[in-house]
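Protocol step 4 of 6: record predicted structures for both targets in the notebook before any analysis. Target 1:
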Amino acid sequence: MLAELLTKLKLGCGRRLLPEWRLEQEKLLVGSCKTIVGLDYDLPSLKDHQNISLKVRGSVCELPFGDGCFDLVTANMVVEHLDSPEIRFKDVLRILKRGGLFIFHTPNAVSYVTIVNRLVPETLKKKLIYVLEGRKEEDVFETHYKANTARRISALARLTGFEAVKIKMLVTTAAFALVLPVAVAELIWIRLLMTRPFKPLRTNIIAILRKQ
């Protein structure tokens, strides 16, 4: 299999690659690569990560790797935290082999979830995220949303030497399912997001960029 030949870097690997209930799938995913390296600045998260054996404590703002080390770099819910995405994308480009891919999953800056998130005061945000998503306060980090629309990602790709292979807009599950009065309106809105006219407002983005 092609995946078995890949040398992969997971940016912001955190405590796990997939949700806890998908532990077996995560093991299969890790085992499918020739080499997989996990990078995270948060040491407790790295220590808690059980499936990646090659772990590096470091910052996505200064990648501690040589040029052309990886076939694939992935990031799940990391790009929204970048304060200078053009500089960071260039650094990812540097560590990729020619033809290598940078694949990331990130919130859409103009989606209703992100807009609500940006309006909530910081003092309440971590508590709200814990209630809605079960994430602890120490696992919630500052967001900037500077590379979080399809247009912005395409522009960054051109500026940094990437080819934008695909940018896909996704609809995710209800964020406010536990708040019943809000959940009803949210489900109606999600149904609208699944139609073509509302596609730009969908909640999440998956981007596939290739080093030219």
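Target 2:
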Amino acid sequence: MTPAGQDKLRTAAGTLGLTLTDHQVDQCATVYDELVLWNEKVNLTKITGEDEAIVKHFVDSFTPVQILTDEERSQPLRMIDIGTGGGFPAIPLLILFPHWQATLVDSVGKKLNFVRHALETIGIKAEVLHMRAEDLAHQKERRERYDLAIARALADLPVLLELTLPFIKVGGRLIAMKGKAVADEVARASKAIHMLGGGNPVTTSLVLPDDVGERSLISVAKLKATPALYPRQAGTPQAAPLV
């Protein structure tokens, strides 16, 4: 990442109320540089141009800070990123909160090789798992053990809820990172939220820099245990969503 890009990152993060340290900027720059190199061999992302990547990969990944509580920011909470892909939003969030105990999950092993490399290169420890959420959520040591689940552009909300809420302990919550128009999607998710133990969703809207567009953060608290049936076997949540 060029010096101009690093300045842009600082400024763009400032629109979210963040003041990045030099070390955090260096870590983001390293992740970006490695992403560009790896992307020549592994299809990690279509977004590699510096200006676009700064906003769409890093600043977009930072947006949950807008709704994190002081306790969530400061405590070593357990966080799981379902469908992490090339490590977004988890890696940028771990750059902000390296004391979090994070698990990054994806079903595409080649992308996770990059994630492991990027984390090691910037000196951040996290668990990286090559599995499907539908299988992982039924493991006793994973089920309802996390304070926070995060998913960015993973699936339609009813499907996303089935893939994430089983991981969250009662008292924790999901933050689903979505695009602009989510009202209809949230309405269609009411049955899934009720069945899976979630509370009423709260949507927070924000605008990204450079006219990139609006984003919506959907927060769903975990109020009661998810029935043991869910998530259903791989492919079923997508084929027969809870709507």
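Step 5 preliminary note on target 2. The longest helix spans residues 22-39. The chain has one domain: 64-239.
Proceed to step 6 after PI sign-off.
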